[in-house]
């Protein structure tokens, strides 16, 4: 393994490795997997625009994952009483998904917990450092986008 001689490069690699191990996105999950929580938030978001419920393909598109990946997660959430699946009234081939009351309570609690965690981070850093941190993260994101986004095929 190459020895990295540049101290700043080593420190950057180490802190990013530590972030990767830290479960900083974890908030009151109620034992759910992160993927299940993302599905719940996607259903909630979709139902804000479509009160009749969202389809699996809409969830897949929103999360940019395949429908075969989404389906077992929805089945798991349904078994836990957090979502309800049903056939569309106009097209019986279409399956729609909505949050149950328990699913709505869970997403509200999870959203509040997540917001509280970021509020605590902002308070810990203070206003000025928070702004600097946000600006730096935006620059890192821009760098990653430029370096790692594949050009579209024509």
TrEMBL record:
- Where does the signal peptide begin and end? none
Q: Which PANTHER family match?
A: TRANSCRIPTIONAL REGULATOR, MARR, TRANSCRIPTIONAL REPRESSOR OF EMRAB OPERON
CDD domains for this protein: HTH_ARSR (cd00090)
- What SMART domains does UniProt report for this protein, alphabetically? HTH_DTXR, HTH_MARR
Can the keyword Transmembrane helix be found in this entry's annotation? no
Q: Which UniProt keywords apply?
A: DNA-binding, Transcription, Transcription regulation
Residue ranges annotated for the HTH marR-type domain, each copy included: 1-142
Q: Which GO terms describe its molecular function?
A: DNA binding; DNA-binding transcription factor activity; transition metal ion binding
Which Pfam families is this protein grouped with? MarR
* Kinase recorded as keyword: no
Query: InterPro entries under this entry?
Result: ArsR-like_HTH, HTH_MarR-typ, Iron_dep_repressor, WH-like_DNA-bd_sf, WH_DNA-bd_sf
Q: What is this protein called?
A: Transcriptional regulator
